[in-house]
Fold these 2 entries.
Entry 1:
Amino acid sequence: MIRKFVLGLLFFSLCAVSAMAQRPAIERVEPPHWWIGFNQTQVQLLVHGPNIGNTRVNFDYPGVDLVRMVKTENPNYLFVYLNITDEAEPGTITLHFDDGRRTLRYDYEIKARLGSDGRHQGFDSSDVIYLLMPDRFANGDPTIDNIPGMIEGVDMDEPFARKGGDIQGILDNLDYIKDLGMTAIWLNPIFENDMPYNYAIGAGFYHGYAATDMYRVDRRFGSNEDFRTLVNTSQEMGMKVIMDKIHNHVGTHHWFIKDLPSADWIHDQEVYGNTSFRTNTIMDPYASVSDFNSTVRAWFVDEMPDLDQRNPLVADYLIQNTLWWIEEFGIDGIRMDTHAYPYPEYMAEWTRIVLDEYPTFNIVGEVWMPDVPTTAWWQFDSRISGDYNSHLPSVTDFPLFNAIARGLNEDPGWESGLTRIYYTLGQDFLYTDPLLNVIFVDNHDLTRFADIVNRDPGKFKMGLSLIYTTRGIPQIFYGTEIMMDQQGMWNDPGKRHPFPGGWPGDEINAFTHEGRVQLGEELGLPVAEMHEFVRTLTHWRNGAEVIHNGRLRHFIPEENIYVYFRYNEDARVMVILNGQDETQQLDMSRFIELTEGFTTGTDVSTGREVPLHGSISLSPLESLILEME
Ligand SMILES: [Ca+2]
Ligand SMILES: [Ca+2]
């Protein structure tokens, strides 16, 4: 595929002479507009159109200077760097592109910034994040299921096809998410993904990770204005919005991939192949160069060309694209996809700049690492990353997820069962700030938690109890609150079934209590009870400051019972997880260092009162979250 691009570029240069004669034109300028008042005053305008690279730009606008023009081997590009000083007033810069014979005009708007009041709020351990996949949550506007001129439409029978979920569907159900108590919404990517599909090999791009335009919401989800409405409405309701971004790759049908600015815009797939996914090679002191390249410079999949962020034009483009979305829509946070796959130096610089411009903002990097050291390496100011500082506040806590998924299902032993969770958390000294870890029992890439615990309600509640009460920022994947499972489908679409009730004509509407009761009867699962459990825990946690930032102290599991406390000067919570599928007695005397002076604990979800001294009886797989008095 790369060879084709290179040949294409060669063709351009061979035609350079005749191209000179062709009239330059402007088809696209990115970013579409910019602002006055960033710390980083320079902005790169990517100007694209036939032979625009054969022009020179000039303009006259008080407070704005031309820094430089950069041409690439493709004459259809001109990169114009402006310096927008604080002296500039909002308005329109008329740019003149002159090829020596004629002049093209382009009006470029610079705006005043709106400020961060009620926007750019960041997220932290006081939040509970609801993750949803826009194509799979709810179809609020069937009139945009199929867009003339876009490659793929809706096919409800094909698992890898689009299902028609959209922004209107999310807006229609914000009340539901709010009622659950969620304080933040993380959307899987909303960028245009106008990609050809091949369902036979599972290549469907409903998930949004193969952008074809990084300044436009996919029209099958809605418009950029619809996204603005979603952000504003969510924020007015007290819910933050976290946007999913990808800087490692775009889709093969991205407009700039179809007309590459330069061969070094992306990595050559014929040289580096597809990624090994071995992101440990980034910090492995013994990693070979070829292994590093096979991770960082290789393509994620055939449909996702790997961007070369060492090219400063690419780096500037991506950093500005981020600032544009934050400033334009006022989003509160970013979840950076495949955070470990671009050059780590670039990721650090990107993160530093974003947080420098937006100090109240937060970013979680998807660092899907197998263990605590390789995860902790990625957190800001890490003591174990040598000279490298990622600047990244939040990391995805896959080690804790792995410990939960294994620990709930295996026989207890010296380091297995709930002890696995205990050991994993005991390595928190490696993190700069484990309170900022995003913690979860599943997400869009993982087996549904209902399947992980084989639909066992006790284990299901135990996993949720854990992420709601241990350190970190809990994230709930849409449908987990109704025990949604994969219905025997063991690929990605199985993890992302449409939410029942989100589609016109759905027989069961699980957005309502009646629907959840009905769904539970049909599946033989405590669907409504689980929803109420999640709802109760979320609302309780929102008001429980001791869980947000209190200290954590835990005890060596005995008989597969894991006990820990969250405590501060004002409150104390005791969590007891009975990992055994049998009734057990728990002698409370071992916990006297934290129970002294308290007499009773009241379970948050059931109201059951237990004495904090003597011995208590635990039901099989019982989880207790006790507010201590
Ligand atoms: Ca739709
Ligand atoms: Ca890469």
Entry 2:
Amino acid sequence: MLEQRSRSYESDDEERGACEWCEYALVITLATILLIGVSALTVFWVIFYREGYGWADDLPEKQFNLHPTLMIGGFVTFSGFSVLLYRICRCFRRIYVKLLHAIFHALAFPCIVIGFLAVFDFHNKKGINNFYSLHSWIGFVAMGLFGLQYAVGFFSFLLLLICSKGTASFRASLVPIHAAFGILTFVLGACACLTGLTEKALFTLGAERYSGLPDEGVVINVIGVTTVAITIIVMYILSRDRFKSQTSDRRISVEL
Ligand code: HEM
């Protein structure tokens, strides 16, 4: 009787384990598709509706097009993957996940710098004021936080390389702060993308045409909705304790 009951508990556990694994596989796959999809759709929008890319005095509009593409690539796709790596690579040693995290941020960094220079130079060429809009203010804060996070992450990684054991507790105390600001930067980046897309739709299509929902308006809205979906799914994945690394907490604290 006792044996029968323990066998039924075991099968319950197995079923729950299988469900959790399916949920994990589903959300990670969905997040991966959306993260790549949003950048692919932005490239499609720019090439199909906005005449593609360029960087020359007589092509300021094409130069502007680098801005949304690189900002979405840097702040959403690369940063999104960088954040999710701690959940995707659960079986890797933490040091390798950290390295991958740093590599994805290192890919985001030039995207954001060039993306910003593209719009800054575009404004100067067209004689438009800098930093006048709500979008540019949100973007400025997001970029500032990204830079700060990058510096703190680099510093703690450097400490890890120089003196792993002696700096462990200091580095461990930085982790929750770095994680909280990382989420904030990601959400602010998404807000900047949404305000930027709205602004661009109104500037280029005009309020009247945009309200008629032309094809281009639909594409812009889909890019925005995908960004919202990514934010929701990334927050969901981060909030699920069960998606965390299988490495024991003790080993994590030693390897930080
Ligand atoms: C996280 C992503 C983004 C950040 C951090 C960001 C940041 C900025 C900043 C700082 C400016 C002001 C540049 C200046 O005044 O010289 C700007 C301008 C602009 N951005 Fe973005 N941007 C982002 C994404 C986007 C996206 C996806 C679009 C969509 C097309 C967009 C559209 C615009 C437009 C139209 C301007 C010129 C008007 C203005 O200054 O508000 N941005 N952006």
